[in-house]
Amino acid sequence: KVKHVHEVLNFFNIPLDTFDVYVGNEIVKNSKPHPEPILKALELYGEIDKKDVVYIGDAINDTISANEAGIDAVLIDRIDAFNESEKYIKINNLLELI
Length: 98
Hints:
Blueprint: H1 3-11, H2 36-45, E1 54-57, H3 60-69, E2 72-76, E3 89-91
Parallel strand pairs: 1-2, 2-3
């Protein structure tokens, strides 16, 4: 169901069991920046408070989708192409999350 997601994880040598839920364009009608992919992931995960969820992406569409879904957004901006915004937390790489 989420072939593209698995291909990306395999490319980066990330074990498939790293995450509990995967949502790809194959299982939603609307893709980002629509909030449907994130809302579907929340639905599949089960009972969870949105304040305990953060969406990490590398495109403005990711932050729009997260904001529309009502969750916090982190933007990975590797080349410092985007301004700071109250709509997302900006980082330069994933290591900044550690």
